[in-house]
């Protein structure tokens, strides 16, 4: 059984297209659609966590932590 899909056409500024290309290369994604789907999953998870009162902390190589401020 084939998945139902919808084609979406987007216009991106050149800088956004370059970021998309870079992410595709760094993640070894098979397509721009794969990069986009993964980004949606991450974005949704971050929103769910912050809505439930969680904070996201980053730890550097020396063990120092800093809160990642996203939705200011």
Task: Provide structural commentary.
- Strands 1-2 form a two-stranded antiparallel sheet.
- Strand 1 and strand 2 (65-67) form a beta hairpin.
- It has one domain (14-67).
- The chain is built from two helices and two strands, in the order ααββ.
- With 72 residues, the protein is mainly alpha-helical.
- The longest helix is centred in the middle third of the chain and has 20 residues, at 32-51.
- The chain has helices at residues 14-27, 32-51, and strands at residues 57-59, 65-67.
- The chain is extended.
- Helix 1 packs across helix 2.
Mean pLDDT, nearest integer?
92
Q: Over all CA atoms, what is the radius of gyration?
A: 16 Å
β-strand percent reads 5-15%
Q: How would you characterize the largest beta sheet?
A: 2 strands, antiparallel
| Lateral arrangement of strands in the main beta sheet | 1-2
List the helices and strands and how they pair.
Layout: H1 14-27, H2 32-51, E1 57-59, E2 65-67
Antiparallel strand pairs: 1-2
Helix pairs in contact: 1-2
Characteristics of this structure?
72 residues; two-stranded antiparallel ribbon; mainly alpha; extended; 2 strands
Briefly say what this structure is.
This protein is mainly alpha-helical and 72 residues long. The chain has helices at 14-27, 32-51; strands spanning 57-59, 65-67.
